[in-house]
């Protein structure tokens, strides 16, 4: 069995099933290590964003199927939590090998379902792989603390215990990385997980789950269910689920946080963003323009850490023109095509929304100095392509500034000086990421100190922390208090227990239990 066949009903390889779009394969549920055909009559059609061909049908799983997944995860928990932590982390050692071996196949699936370029899709897998690598160190990460003699003869220590069944709800934009932010940390700390991948591109999560099984993860430790709002509501209301990791849009994230926490669950909710680059006049122009181009338009702007707003501090505006020139050189194409820099956006509705936000900006007085809205890619005329688009003279009251556009669109603002730029960034509702481009250590240090954003880059456009740290978006981009991956991720998936213990030396010298009984 190849990992491809794991996704589809077709006995043929996934690619052949994909081509035979007359009868698209249904995506299976994964329960107790087995693929389960949903009995639902309700499916989401998964369309290739570059071609509109039907890749697969994603089931809206039934309440009974969801319950079977949760009950099975609950059953698996007892044995898994008492499996040694060395054994659990060894599964991660094996998994990281298998992910590397299957990198191309995973990436090809991401291109087909999500649209990003092959190179970018490999990056998607790679950033998730780093979390698997970090989870290999769980015996150290999950260590408690110990203080001897908190009172004479009494010691206090902490242990970090798994919570039980936890759930993950994923977005479409990183179909490999986000599932890998969740399940490696959740299961290696001893939990079992029910995961709901995005209904727009669940293939990579299915493949990763298969690789985890091959790596030795016992059946039931990771179960996958599919669907949209209804299955999310089942997760939110299910008493056996103790914690929920969510990544996605504001609308869903606020709702999931409110209903999940009202039901007594731990919830970590990573949401939308408007990430600003602040360009100082002393910035290295070439490096800055290159960084901005990649960060604004790469992955068709569908990254939660994409630079979507550029604040040009007085004296740096000349870089805007060069940015337009550089952005024009980017090749927009189907993701497997050689030289493609960015692929399509996820759906036709998304393309339409992007277009209308750009038009709204123009109507409100912004100038469109690069317009990619009408782009047609030869051979892929039906694709949801949007070319790099740049709006200048954007002001803070415009919808195109306030809303997360989530497409290859950069809105440009002006600032009088660094203080003005910082004030503008801090006035924005979001706090996911930001970056300053400067050659001044003093400006960078002031920016780092005064900016009210959770992840800061200094001459680094997309400052996503590697997994020995945590992903620390703030303000409107995050709800909860314990972040994804790193030490924080371990804390999220574990309950701390503090033990205070007294053992009297006199009990040893007088013969242990028998002596104690003598005293009673
Ligand atoms: P989305 O919110 O539409 O979907 C995310 C998940 O929530 C999906 O599994 C979906 O089925 C479910 N869902 C959607 N609407 C729901 C609702 N009303 N009720 C219950 N469940 C619902 O997000 P998306 O479009 O898939 O992903 C893009 C968004 O994710 C962007 O806003 C992006 O910034 C954000 N994102 C954030 C981070 C981060 O770490 N901050 C990372 C990646 C993506």
TrEMBL record:
<dbReference type="GO" id="GO:0006210">
    <property type="term" value="P:thymine catabolic process"/>
</dbReference>
<dbReference type="GO" id="GO:0004491">
    <property type="term" value="F:methylmalonate-semialdehyde dehydrogenase (acylating, NAD) activity"/>
</dbReference>
<keyword id="KW-0560">Oxidoreductase</keyword>
<feature type="domain" description="Aldehyde dehydrogenase">
    <location>
        <begin position="36"/>
        <end position="499"/>
    </location>
</feature>
<protein>
    <recommendedName>
        <fullName>methylmalonate-semialdehyde dehydrogenase (CoA acylating)</fullName>
        <ecNumber>1.2.1.27</ecNumber>
    </recommendedName>
</protein>
<keyword id="KW-0520">NAD</keyword>
<dbReference type="InterPro" id="IPR016162">
    <property type="entry name" value="Ald_DH_N"/>
</dbReference>
<dbReference type="InterPro" id="IPR010061">
    <property type="entry name" value="MeMal-semiAld_DH"/>
</dbReference>
<dbReference type="InterPro" id="IPR016161">
    <property type="entry name" value="Ald_DH/histidinol_DH"/>
</dbReference>
<dbReference type="GO" id="GO:0006574">
    <property type="term" value="P:L-valine catabolic process"/>
</dbReference>
<comment type="similarity">
    <text>Belongs to the aldehyde dehydrogenase family.</text>
</comment>
<dbReference type="InterPro" id="IPR016163">
    <property type="entry name" value="Ald_DH_C"/>
</dbReference>
<dbReference type="InterPro" id="IPR015590">
    <property type="entry name" value="Aldehyde_DH_dom"/>
</dbReference>
<dbReference type="InterPro" id="IPR016160">
    <property type="entry name" value="Ald_DH_CS_CYS"/>
</dbReference>
<dbReference type="Pfam" id="PF00171">
    <property type="entry name" value="Aldedh"/>
</dbReference>
<dbReference type="GO" id="GO:0005739">
    <property type="term" value="C:mitochondrion"/>
</dbReference>
